[in-house]
Amino acid sequence: MGMNMKQIQIGVIGVGHMGRKHVQLLSEMKDEFNLCGVYDLDEKRIRDTGYTGRIFQSEEELMENVEAVIIAAPSFLHKSLTLKAAEHNLHALVEKPLSLNAEDAAKICQRYAALDHKVLMVGHVEQFNPVVLELAKVLRDEEIIAATLERCSPMDMRISDTDVIYDLMIHDIDILLNAIFPGLLPNKMYAFGRTSYNEKNVDFVQAIFQFENRAQASIISSRTTDGKIRKINVHCKKSYIECDLFHKTIAISGKKVSIPNVEPLEAELSCFARSIAAGKTLRNSGETAVKDLEVLDGIRGMVY
């Protein structure tokens, strides 16, 4: 912890899959954070995390007692909760997606831009995956021909408010735009998808892109597999790069590269703390999330 950093008074809203992890890590990161309390509609779910501290009775009560908040509630609540955090003049780390569409995300960013040195960060945790960080470094010296990204998981029946586009594909769109092709946007895009478990949300989507520099990319996102797949392959003029984000491996033309043992969520939380100390978002800004969502909204328009 830097000399100019103080312990941040923080709270967590929502203890689902990601919120639970936040609570557990914040309880350990005492140099950077003081976990003041947690709020969830289900108090038993909070206690099931092993947390023994203060439980707030509403998001309003929590926000009145902290200087920073982590919003890990269901996706459809992200917009209203983040705008409420802005009303309370709080730093906010919002689990992805920032909102359910780019227009709402832009409104959130505008609200935070009007605040004085308040941090709005979005929880695209894969940006802190050591494989993604190493890939971004390697690609600085490469001319990319094409990239393929595949992210597949078994269906999680707990996720009912989000389709595979905003649940899984959002990760790889963020990696594509910020780690593989930083500063570039696709000028051509095609997408196809289909439902599997219900007729409301698509569970399999394939999207194909061409970028301004003529490089190509494809993303497959699925909630229909038996196990988890997290793979990125990049075809370059000088090399072929194979990444496995799940097993944390990367190989360049068959030669394995050493990857540091880093916990991505812990690294993300540390970045949030440094951002608060700096008075500006150092990584995964709201504006970046808006660009991701603009592409995702375009994919949704093609698929449905």
Would you give an account of this structure?
With 304 residues, the protein is an alpha/beta fold. The chain folds into 2 domains: 8-123 and 265-285, Rossmann fold; 130-260, Dihydrodipicolinate Reductase, domain 2. Helix content is 34%, strand content 27%. It is built from 9 helices and 13 strands. The strands form 2 sheets. It has an 8-stranded mixed sheet, with helices on one face. Strands 2-1-3-4-5 form a 5-stranded parallel sheet, sandwiched between helices. Helix 5 (102-113) packs antiparallel against helix 9 (286-303) and helix 7 (164-180) packs across helix 9. The N and C termini lie far apart (47 Å). The relative contact order is 0.16. The mean pLDDT is 95.
Topology:
Elements: E1 8-13, H1 17-28, E2 33-39, H2 43-47, H3 59-63, E3 68-71, H4 78-87, E4 91-95, H5 102-113, E5 120-123, H6 130-139, E6 144-152, H7 164-180, E7 186-195, E8 202-211, E9 216-222, E10 229-236, E11 240-244, E12 249-252, E13 255-256, H8 264-278, H9 286-303
Parallel strand pairs: 1-2, 1-3, 3-4, 4-5, 6-9
Antiparallel strand pairs: 6-10, 7-8, 8-9, 10-11, 11-12, 12-13
Helix pairs in contact: 4-5, 5-9, 7-9
